[in-house]
Design brief:
Blueprint: E1 2-4, E2 15-24, E3 28-30, E4 37-44, E5 47-51, E6 54-58, E7 63-66, E8 72-76, E9 84-91, H1 95-101, E10 107-110, H2 115-118, H3 120-124, H4 132-158, H5 162-177, H6 184-191, H7 195-206, H8 210-228, H9 234-240, H10 246-257, H11 261-266
Antiparallel strand pairs: 1-2, 2-9, 3-8, 4-7, 4-9, 5-6, 5-8, 7-10
Helix pairs in contact: 5-6, 5-7, 5-8
Length: about 270
């Protein structure tokens, strides 16, 4: 079963673009990613999801959330076994903020879902069939609860995972100190592991190195600042987000967004 919304209200804190369950999953290739946040979990069988070259195997009771516009593809693990999935696609004005609350990189991967999270889509499917103002507001509230379930699920798993705790400490350091210089030694002190081993840990949970996560987080914060303060100088924004080299900031920003910081902020000048 599947619901797709062709008209979404982008002004809502959270909105649903699509939801489904008991879905016979076809092979999917998205070189440019999805326009919205995309949650995928396995009901039956198994599948392989590849996000920017990092592979995740989704067995039953496992799922992942992918950020918008992130290259990914997925297909069933075995040609002899059908892959059935559940999915939830959403966006909204607070979606990025909630993703940051989850300390999410490109992917938020859960190896073992709690019962409440595992049945969320089935239990709330009827709600997403409702139309009108009241229906969309109820859906927005339900999507917020879904994100809180993701957070609670991860917190429960952290109590039994020392390495995940170490990765989480590195994320805490990055998100709290991104405007300052952060060295590999700083991250080692936070994680309690050597630089080479902490990189393996971080890559396992977040699909990238701590340095890549730091750069992408800084770029997201820079975009937020320029959206809120389009009159600010590019040099000042770079300084506020930990980029000491303006040339490097401009290059990385253009590589990430396809436009220069100046052109990006021009969109938000009144």
């Amino acid at each position: 079963m599947k619901i797709s919304f062709t008209h979404v209200d982008n002004s809502l804190p959270l909105f649903c673009e699509g939801v489904g369950y008991t879905w016979t999953q076809d092979e999917v290739h998205r070189p440019q990613g999805h326009h919205y946040y995309h949650w995928l979990q396995t009901e039956k069988g198994s599948g392989i999801v590849t996000v920017r070259g990092q592979k995740y195997i989704l067995h039953p009771n496992q799922g992942l959330l992918i950020r918008p516009m992130i290259e990914h593809e997925y297909h069933q693990l075995s040609k002899q076994e059908q892959w059935q999935t559940e999915f939830l696609v959403f966006g909204g004005t607070v979606a990025d903020m909630l993703a940051d609350f989850l300390k999410m990189a490109d992917v938020y991967y859960l190896e073992n879902m709690t019962p409440d999270l595992a049945v969320f889509i089935r239990q709330n499917y009827v709600l997403f069939e409702h139309e009108g103002v009241e229906g969309t507001l109820q859906q927005s509230a339900a999507l917020y609860n879904f994100v809180m379930l993701l957070k609670a699920n991860a917190s429960q798993n952290l109590t039994t995972s020392v390495t995940h705790l170490a990765a989480n400490k590195m994320v805490d350091m990055i998100t709290s100190n991104y405007s300052d210089k952060i060295s590999a030694m700083d991250l080692s002190q936070a994680s309690g592991y050597s630089n080479s081993y902490q990189n393996k840990i971080f890559n396992h949970y977040y699909g990238m190195s701590p340095q890549t996560f730091l750069n992408e987080y800084r770029l997201r914060q820079a975009k937020k600042l320029m959206m809120l303060h389009p009159d600010w100088q590019v040099q000042f924004v770079a300084d506020q987000t930990g980029f000491n080299d303006i040339s490097r900031f401009i290059k990385e920003f253009k590589d990430n967004t396809g436009m220069t910081p100046f052109n990006f902020k021009q969109q938000f000048l009144k």
